[in-house]
Specification:
Phosphatidylethanolamine-binding Protein; single chain; 148 residues; 33% strand; six-stranded mixed β-sheet; mainly beta
């Protein structure tokens, strides 16, 4: 793999996610920046999930069709194509763990993809992940923490 990386000006890797990016605040997506993806990358796909949710993995944001040369997404910026999260809405929904459940990890995983994905807007995580299978060149990950 390459030195492909994902960062945010809102929080450090393994650091706390500010309230403004959660259901307790403005619920706006944090600004994200990435380093150049590997050669051959045609598009990027983003999956944000909470692996610590009581019922198992909970998806907060699905996005794809992202231009690898863009270098980032601004705070609150929608991706070119977005999918249905586990809140059953399309787009970003921030951390919102059950009160008193302790600290949860939120994984922002950016996939460098060797081709343009043919996934319709509003698709769920299963459909996006099937489309990604065998097409991923690299994955950059950023983890944020939040508890209520």
């Amino acid at each position: 793999m390459t030195g492909f990386s994902l960062t945010s000006s809102a929080f450090a890797n393994d650091g706390p996610i500010p309230r403004r990016h959660t259901c307790d605040g403005e619920d706006r997506s944090p600004a994200l920046s990435w380093s150049p993806p590997p050669s051959g990358t045609r598009s990027l796909a983003l999956i944000v999930d909470d692996p610590d949710a009581p019922g198992g993995r909970f998806v907060h944001w699905l996005a794809w069709g992202i231009d690898p040369d863009a270098g980032g997404l601004a705070e609150g910026e929608a991706a070119p194509v977005e999918g249905r999260n586990d809140f059953r809405t399309v787009g970003y929904r921030g951390p919102c763990p059950p009160r008193g459940h302790g600290r949860h990890r939120y994984r922002f995983r950016l996939h460098a993809v060797a081709e343009d994905l043919r996934v319709p807007p509003g698709a769920g995580s299963d459909e996006l992940e099937r489309a990604l299978a065998g097409r991923i060149l690299a994955v950059a990950e950023l983890v944020g923490l939040y508890q209520r």
